[in-house]
Amino acid sequence: MYEDSPDHRLYKEPDGCPLYRPPRPPRHRGEVSDIQKIDRDLLEQCYRMFYNPSNMVLVVAGDIDPKTAFEVADRTLNGDGFKPRG
């Protein structure tokens, strides 16, 4: 996805710089042929399975009343759309 974005590659992947010695091995994301196998159905399945509030963590920070935060979260995050799926 980011192979054609020079600024992203400079920011995230300094491993290609000859003077840089990474503290860890380079990240492997898969071969282009593997990425080409991804289709709409697979993306939708992954979205429904992983991008679901039942898999998320709510973080609240700042000068906020905890009771109010829990009430808003409870009111907002309860419902059929937020139950675990597949």
Tell me what portion of residues adopts beta-strand conformation: under 5%
The SSE order reads HHHH
Structural class category = mainly alpha
Q: Helix amount, in percent?
A: 40-55%
Mean pLDDT: 77
Number of helices: 4
> How many β-strand runs?
0
Features:
flat
Short description, anyone?
The protein is mostly helical and 86 residues long. 41% of the residues lie in helices and 0% in strands. The two termini are 27 Å apart.
Give your account of this protein's structure:
- This protein has 86 residues and is an all-alpha fold.
- The protein has one domain (6-78).
- Helices cover 41% and strands 0% of the residues.
- The protein has four helices and no strands.
- It has helices spanning 6-12, 32-36, 40-50, 66-77.
- The protein starts with 5 loop residues before the first helix and ends in a 9-residue tail after the last helix.
Topology diagram in text:
Elements: H1 6-12, H2 32-36, H3 40-50, H4 66-77
